């Protein structure tokens, strides 16, 4: 079985480099145009799993316009950024909590929000659900539309071949990887990049 892991289309928060996690914002017209441009380059899928946030559902419908099977997976949502939600670096640069986070960016000491280990446990649950559900239903290839942070967490932990750091798995909007999953231990072996990923 194969998974086409894709990041959602461009949002206003992306353009303004804001921490947009749990905020449910739509993709922009340029995000729609990007998804339509990428769509013909993607492999066909039997079904689509997606984060429940609107930007992922909108993107999924544009990337695979002929696909009618969708399953929302709550565990594939983006990180809860707590007090940083909706803000960007310029607005936060004088915030002592933000400065502390920049020194140790695992969010473990935030009063609210998710730590890196919490995000990893959640997204692992989400992708294990996708793999198990797809196998039970006999799908040979499925699309998974999620968020930049979700994909970085997944691939930094389970992506193969491994890369040096979490941020080496950053991907552009409407980009991602075609991967072959295996379980016990969970691995996501990259078959090829998708969309506008350069590596």
Helix content: 25-40%
**Given this structure, which CATH class is correct?**
Alpha Beta
Class by helix and strand content? alpha/beta
Order of helices and strands: EHHEHEHHHEHEEE
Low-confidence stretches: none
Oligomer: single chain
* CATH arch. level architecture: 3-Layer(aba) Sandwich
Shape: globular
Total individual domains: 1
- First-last Cα distance: 22 Å
Cα-based radius of gyration, to the nearest Å: 16 Å
In CATH, the topology is named Rossmann fold
Strand order of the largest sheet: 3-2-4-1-6-7-5
How many helices? Answer: 7
Strand content: 15-25%
**CATH homology superfamily name:** Phosphoglycerate mutase-like
Overall mean pLDDT stands at 92
In total, how many beta strands? 7
Largest sheet: 7 strands, mixed
In short:
The protein has seven helices and seven strands; from the N terminus they run βααβαβαααβαβββ. It is an alpha/beta fold and 199 residues long.
General description of the model:
It is a single chain. This protein is α/β, with parallel strands linked by helices and 199 residues long. 34% of the residues lie in helices and 18% in strands. It has helices spanning 12-15, 29-38, 54-63, 89-92, 96-103, 116-136, 148-158, and strands at residues 2-7, 47-50, 70-72, 141-146, 159-160, 176-182, 187-194. α3 links the parallel β2 (47-50) and β3 (70-72). α2 runs parallel beside α3 and α6 crosses α7 (148-158). The longest helix is centred in the middle third of the chain and has 21 residues, at 116-136. The mean pLDDT is 92.
